[in-house]
Amino acid sequence: MAKRAKEAKKPRHPTVVRRIRDSRLKQLGDVQPFCVGSLRVSSVRCGKKGCHCETGEGHPTNCLSTTVAGRKVSRHVRREDLEDVRKMTLEYKRVKGLVKEISELTLELMASEAYVRRQQKRRQRRR
Question: What is the pLDDT of residues 12-41, one digit of tens each?
């Protein structure tokens, strides 16, 4: 999702803003399963006597780090599930970005509609 270029005139016409917002809402319509968190590689020690992890680095393992009830939690991710979990975390970031953009567009729409109403009242007073 690209950032919009700096706008010349701040209040865009409500129709334009509404059209952009509606297109973002349509993009939300095809939401795939998602999860909050980030993937990271961690190392664990297996506990077997004589294993190399006893003295050196541990065995690499994939973890999903997230927050549950205000506490950080790490969950093991199996190798065969790694790509699916990666897609789900990316989908969350996409949806989060869309929701933020829709919110900003709605606020912009409210401001531009108020601006258009003020302009219409001024034109009526001049007549």
Answer: 777 888 888 888 888 888 788 889 999 998
